[in-house]
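1st attempt posting a full record on here, be nice pls
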Amino acid sequence: MRIGKILITKNNVSDFVQNQSKEIFIRSDMILSSGAMDILRNRGIAIHYGEQPIKGGGSCKIKDLRGDIETILRTEFKIDDEESLKQIVELVLKKV
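the predicted structure (as tokens):
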């Protein structure tokens, strides 16, 4: 259970932007620092406040879920090894 908010700073903003994505969704449990906001804008990444909408079609949902799982592993569990991330994400998706 999470208590508090997730702080997105210029040092960890890349952990919250999915590969090659041009948008980020800032949920109510997140705080976006001004430094992170500057980085996102300089990269041309659109900032949306609220939950990421679920796109139609199964493959889009899996892609979104894959990115969410990866973000959780990077931010909550500090896993940044790409091979480990891939293996864990695949294991989780098999269980869903």
